[in-house]
Specification:
The complex is a heterotrimer of chains A (about 90), B (about 1000) and C (about 210). Chain A is built from 1 helix and 6 strands; from the N terminus they run E-E-E-H-E-E-E. With about 90 residues, chain A is mainly β. In chain B, a hairpin with a 6-residue loop joins strand 23 and strand 24. Classes of the chains: A mainly beta (about 90), B alpha+beta (about 1000), C alpha+beta (about 210). The structure holds zinc ion. The site of zinc ion (ZN) has 7 residues of chain A, from loops.
Chain lengths: ~90, ~1000, ~210
């Protein structure tokens, strides 16, 4: 079970969090300008790397804040978590 | 003397405390401090079980956690436990155990016939024989399950309590042997928060089996001193009888503490406790397990591990036999020979696969006059239910065959040692790699992903002095890395170092014939997997340990191959022609290290505490009224309120009629309520909901629909503007938390520029929903500051004032199609107001109604329920709700309307269904077909989403999703059931008051 | 105004006030629990980075805004404030006070972008203290409550058993070293959590206080 560093509350057990999928997928500013393929890309397509993955979490049972985290999917090593709008930690891309 | 193999003195048992127990119904006696295994051996019991596949008689082969044979059914009735290792059961007064896997008893087993047909049951037997035809499995399964039974599960509920603890520490030390104790002392002296866990009732580990010294005194004196010192540190916790069964990411470990040795008394409060430990550093001092030598018929009762023979003598004062052969490839087994000899046990000889061993221990053994047969191996064992003699021959030059004249040696025990395997299971659980030490033929811990270290025998250090040094060093370092730098100047203990000469690593030992043709070389004693099976697997094309394991079931028994895996891997490597067994890989060890009771995982979450029951403020009124409950998420909601003699349908009919003809009341407190405020609140709703919110007047309500980005319906509800920048959103009961999460997700991650705050107020309000033509009359009696007339207080409006003297918000919103008043009061007044309304409403025929009636009434109106008419694949257009889709703004999900799949002409659409016989209530989920045919399968054109009998319509009706349904009005369709097709007509989904006149009434 | 006895706390039906009379051997009890019903609880949202906001809160309540994560300000027996998140606080006033905390806050903050929501009805408070209070919480809560890490004035939103809670350590007895905690639980979960606490406390001896 992961020990997740909430950028606000500190390290807490994984059971307090909810996983929110891949991070840094921005909602298109003008959806109508997108082709069906491009819209489908935004809706459905996600990378699934073996290695460092930037992902979203929400501290559901704690401060209710969303944040991003860099985690190695092969080892579960956590390179760091960072607030929405901040840059990923060094070493994660 | 009853305990014929018990020595008159020696051992760490208490001869003044006899303990009575029964085994297979026979009354026996042991002593306090015994395990079931040591007591059985003391009583001269040799055969304790039958093997899994061949039902061969088996005896005790170990003294601890690695025991593969001696599995028993412990106790009977509700506390019975299957497959318990006799070597790990502390003997207690009145204990009752029986053998498993044999009927009628271990000495005469009818299933042993399997062993005569063993050629029919090679590796992969189950796969090869029963894979095809598929239907054959049904026939074979019954037979196999009967024959292969491993113990009996209890039929009754577990009477015992279990609980769990979540703890944190600086240093978790697993294993209370010399290395672990030393580590605990060092870490404790640094002031660290330490947990020391050991699976046994006594600390000491291997020291309990030995007669060695520390600081020139008996080693157990040092153990006692260490325990005393540790007990003085307030932040050191010692957990005895506690197995660390799993080690997971980020230094999280699962520990199972057995809190009473006596299974039948259940413990004062909890029989077992599961510890969740989050440690800053972990020190694995898990010791090593001896591995057997793999020779022909090495499963006979009387073949055991050399260290086990030593343990029974030293720790339990039990002679494992009267003439013992020690068979070894290393020096350590000579300790057994010496200990047994000095304990008065006749040593027939020592057989060593090495030539002329000349280490300190062999020299000492020879000095005692013990015969040594070197460069030799055991080639055969006689005696099915107990060894009578063995055959010994010399190894040839390559050690792949034997030469010379066979010699028969009379004996009743073969104590064998193939060296020691460090216990790296926990290291492996947590993602650590293993590396093969070729010189010593063993796997040791390689790289770890955790903040952990293996020390002592678990790290391949088999010298006591080395274990102590590693322990102190590791404990100090772990504490320091956890931030505790306090150092201690105390003198470290010392022990004598005995030089040991290298072992000779031979895996499967030869006989006069090729392997498999003379006796069986067992690798996995519990699953009856032999060397020949693994060799067959290699011939069948299995190239890795992971695949071979599954094909042969090697290491997949309850002991998880603690003794058999490493030799099995080596045999596979040899069969594949791979030089280094490390190259075929080690199996990844997985939790649990030893089996864990399901009760311990459940802990306190049983009975009424299985899952929280969420209660509304009026819950106990409903309960006293005798309602039946519907589970909606964790909430309990009244389903219907049956009166004496009423069926469910009677009750629902009565409630439905009351709602349409008099007044009825519903507890709607479970609906989600979210307070949304800020200058951008209306803009936020515009983006979240499909319709427009900017122009909604203060004090007005509006229905809204939320979509996911793929255009599918996600939730619905009514939202009210209670101020210019202030809204109150309601959600469905089941989605309350999800919707709040959805709002926060968009606000925080995508639109942080919007000035909006969302707060859940679901629990703050009790919601009492009154509906029906007399609702207004009743409510008028309770308020003098709100004009309830239809003109002053129209449909979809909010008024604030008092109801029954309580500050209240009243919403004129309706889910039933009737004139309704949804009264919200502070939750703690809910019960009082409900009770008063019930009393005052009696004259109007007030009737409480539950969720079933609510469902019927809303379906009569064609109102959808998210999750019933929708299933994550339904768009608003499918439900005929185009009217709620704004054309002038963007909102979540809108772009997806233009996707190909959304534009398909054959999407399912919401329709009504009327069963033609006017009697049959269709089954929800029933499939709909166009053709009245008995042929199967038929093309399905839709399914029933909601179906009820309506007292108001005096007939059954249903809602359904049907392909292109809106163009099928009036068509006849069929709902095929097992015995017939039910005909129904497709209609509009609105069955009652289509103009909505009652809503405004 | 409606009669106050009609106001029912989430645990009122358990008649906890009658329970101490039934308990025996109270001096040995390692756990003492009670419901502290009808406290005033106001959710406050705002930007702590805005000095005007923090100042306005202090002016209205006379206590500082706790801006450090997982801390509280003010004395637990009077109006105090719990950190709930980086832009969220819970103002708590003892039961039976009528000092209109919510109104004061709304007035003080009405020019700022913030939210003040009265959630007094949403949760009740279960108070737990005694020699074994920490052990009982450890049975269902993964937060490290060791005194070197968690001390009076610490607040966490977390999970206890299967219920979300807010846990506030209010005090530590100077003599015995025994801690006291306030557990905030949503009212619909209150009976579940109470039952769980009773069950988990049994081995230590349990005293219920009115
Ligand atoms: Zn947090």
């Amino acid at each position: 079970m992961l020990l997740i560093p909430c950028p606000f509350c500190g390290k807490r057990e994984e059971t307090e969090f909810h996983h929110g999928g891949e991070a840094h997928i921005e909602r298109p500013k003008d959806p109508d300008a997108l082709s069906d393929e491009a819209w489908a890309e935004y809706l459905f397509m996600r990378t699934n790397p073996k290695g460092v993955f930037l992902e979203r979490w929400v501290h559901l049972a704690g401060c209710r804040r969303w944040f991003n985290m860099a985690r190695n999917t092969a080892t579960n090593e956590i390179l760091g978590s960072y607030k929405i709008g901040e840059k990923p930690p060094k070493g994660a891309r | 003397m009853a305990q014929k193999n018990r020595l008159t003195e020696g051992g760490r048992i208490d001869r003044s405390k006899p303990v009575n127990f029964t085994f297979n119904g026979h009354p026996l006696q042991g002593y306090a401090g015994d395990t079931l295994a040591s007591a059985l051996l003391a009583n001269g019991i040799r055969v304790v079980a039958r093997s899994f596949k061949y039902h061969r008689p088996r005896g005790i082969m170990a003294a601890g956690v690695e025991e593969a044979n001696a599995l028993v059914q412990l106790e009977t009735g509700d506390r019975t436990l299957a497959n318990q290792q006799a070597t790990r059961i502390e003997l207690y007064e009145g204990l009752s155990a029986t053998s498993i896997n044999c009927w009628p008893g271990p000495n005469f087993d009818l299933m042993a016939i399997n062993s005569w047909f063993h050629r029919l049951m090679p590796a992969g037997f189950y796969y090869k024989t029963f894979m095809w035809p598929v239907a054959g499995w049904k026939f074979y399964e019954h037979f196999i399950r009967r024959a292969a039974g491993l113990g009996i599960s209890p039929r009754e509920a577990d009477p015992d309590q279990y609980d769990q603890m979540n703890v944190h520490c600086d240093v978790l030390i697993v294993g209370g042997g010399p290395a672990g104790l030393a580590a605990a002392l060092a870490a404790g002296r640094s002031g660290a928060r330490v947990i020391l866990a050991d699976e046994q009732a006594q600390l000491g580990g291997q020291l309990l089996n030995e007669r060695c010294e520390i600081n020139g005194k008996p080693a157990l004196d040092w153990v006692t001193t260490a325990e005393t010192e540790l007990a003085d540190y307030p932040d050191v916790t010692i957990l005895r009888r506690t197995t660390t069964f799993g080690y997971y990411d980020h230094n999280f470990a699962g520990l199972l503490e057995t809190r009473t040795a006596k299974l039948t008394d259940g413990g004062e409060h909890t029989r077992q406790r599961l510890w969740h430990v989050r440690a800053k550093r972990v020190v694995l001092a898990t010791g090593a397990l001896e591995r057997p030598l793999i020779f022909s018929d090495n499963d006979r009762p009387g073949v055991m591990l050399a260290n086990a023979a030593r343990s029974y003598l030293t720790r339990y004062g039990v002679k494992v036999g009267s003439r013992v052969v020690v068979f070894t490839n290393n020096d350590d087994a000579y300790r057994t020979a010496i200990a047994l000899f000095e304990g008065g046990v006749k040593i027939a000889c020592i057989i060593d696969t090495r030539s002329a061993p000349d280490g300190e221990l062999p020299t000492a053994a020879l000095a005692l006059g013990i015969e040594l047969v070197d460069n030799s191996t055991v080639t055969g064992v006689t005696g099915g239910r107990g060894i009578k003699s063995i055959e010994v021959m010399s190894l040839n030059a390559n050690a792949d065959g034997v030469t010379g004249v066979p010699r028969m040696i009379d004996c009743d025990v073969v104590a064998s040692s193939g060296g020691w395997n460090p216990v790296i299971h926990l290291h492996s659980h947590s993602g650590g790699k293993a590396k093969f030490d070729e010189a010593r033929g063993l796997f040791i811990a390689g790289e770890t992903l955790q903040a952990s270290v293996c020390i002592g025998a678990a790290n391949g250090e088999f010298q006591l002095d080395g274990c102590l040094k590693q322990g102190f060093q590791a404990g100090k370092k772990a504490a320091s890395l956890a931030g505790l730098k306090k150092s201690s100047r105390r003198k470290l203990p010392v022990a004598e170092t005995i030089d040991e000469t290298p072992a000779r690593i031979l895996w499967a030992l030869p006989t006069t014939k090729p392997i498999g043709e003379r006796g069986k070389h067992f690798l996995d004693l519990q699953h009856d997997v032999t060397v020949a099976d693994v060799q067959l697997a290699a011939r069948d094309g299995y190239k890795t340990d992971e695949h071979t394991k599954r094909y042969t079931t090697l290491g997949m028994a309850t002991d998880q191959g603690k003794t058999g895996n490493i030799p099995g891997m080596a045999v596979l490597a040899q069969a594949l022609g791979v030089e280094n067994p490390g190259d075929v890989g080690t199996t990844t060890f997985r939790p649990p290290y030893t089996p864990v009771t399901l009760g311990a995982f459940a802990g306190r979450n049983v009975g009424v505490l299985t899952d929280p029951v969420r209660m509304t403020p009026m819950h106990h009124w409903h309960e006293l009224s005798g309602c039946t409950w519907e589970d909606v998420g964790q909430w309990k909601r009244p389903w219907y309120y049956p009166q004496t003699g009423e069926t469910m349908q009677d009750a629902v009919n009565r409630e439905c009629l009351a709602a349409r003809n008099a007044v009825a009341i519903l507890d709607a407190s479970t609906l989600g309520k979210i307070d949304i405020q800020g200058p951008d609140a209306a803009e936020f709703l515009n983006r979240i909901y499909t319709n427009a919110w900017s122009k909604l007047a203060v004090g007005k309500c509006r229905y809204g629909l939320m979509l996911r980005e793929d255009g599918m319906i996600f939730d619905d509800g009514v939202t009210t503007r209670i101020g210019e920048n202030h809204f109150l959103m309601t959600t469905t009961t089941g989605n309350a938390a999800t919707v709040l999460g959805w709002l926060e997700e968009w606000l925080q991650t995508e639109w942080p520029d919007l000035k909006v705050y969302c707060n859940s107020v679901t629990e703050a309000w009790a919601t009492l929903s009154l509906c029906g033509p007399r609702a207004r009359d009743l409510l008028t009696e309770f308020t003098d500051d709100i004009d309830l007339s239809a003109e002053a207080f129209p449909f979809m409006a909010l008024r604030e004032g008092t109801v029954g003297g309580i500050a209240a918000r009243i919403f004129r919103i309706s889910f039933t199609g009737e004139s309704s008043f949804e009264v919200n009061v502070p939750a703690s007044y809910g019960l009082a107001l409900w009770t008063q309304l019930m009393n005052a409403g009696e004259k109007y025929g007030i009737t409480p109604y539950g969720t079933e009636t609510m469902h019927v009434l809303r379906a009569e109106k064609g109102y959808i329920i998210v999750g019933q008419e929708t299933d994550g694949t339904v768009m608003p257009q499918d439900l005929g709700m185009d009217w709620i889709l704004s054309k002038t703004k963007d909102f979540l999900g809108r772009r997806s309307f233009a996707r190909n799949d959304s534009m398909r002409a054959d999407r399912k659409q919401l329709v009504g269904l009327l069963p033609l016989d006017k009697q049959t209530v269709l089954e929800e989920g029933g499939q709909i077909v166009a053709e009245n045919s008995t042929a199967r399968p038929l093309p399905m054109i839709g399914h029933v989403t909601s179906s009820y009998f309506s007292a108001n319509l005096e007939r059954p009706f249903a809602l359904a999703l049907v392909t292109d349904g809106r163009s099928r009005m009036g068509e006849q369709v069929y709902i095929p059931m097992k015995d017939r097709n039910i005909p129904a007509e497709i209609t509009s989904p609105v069955f009652f008051d289509p103009e909505g006149e009652r809503l405004n009434g | 105004m409606v009669k106050s006895f009609l106001r029912q706390s989430p645990l009122a039906h358990l008649h906890l006030e009658a329970r101490p009379l039934m308990a025996e051997a109270l001096p040995a009890a390692g756990i003492s629990i009670s419901e502290c019903a009808h406290t005033t609880q106001i959710a406050v949202r705002g930007q702590s980075s805005d000095p005007a906001f923090a100042q306005a809160v202090t002016t209205a309540l006379g206590i500082a805004l706790p801006t450090d994560a997982c801390t509280a300000s003010g004395a637990p027996e009077r109006v105090h404030m719990l950190w709930m998140g980086p832009d969220e606080w819970l103002v708590v006033g003892p039961a039976k006070t009528d000092d209109r905390i919510g109104d004061k806050l709304e007035q003080a903050l009405n020019k700022l972008h913030c939210a003040v929501v009265d959630v007094s009805e949403s949760r009740t408070v279960v108070q737990i203290c005694g020699a074994n209070a920490r052990s009982v919480l450890d049975k269902g809560c993964s937060i490290d409550l060791h005194p070197t890490v968690f001390s009076p004035g610490r607040v966490v939103n977390t999970v206890l058993a299967r219920s979300h809670i807010t846990l506030h350590q209010t005090a530590i007895d100077a003599k015995s070293g025994f801690p006291s905690y306030d557990i905030y639980v949503h009212r619909s979960f209150a009976e579940y959590l109470w039952s769980w606490l009773e069950d988990a406390s049994r081995e230590y001896g349990l005293q219920m206080n009115p």
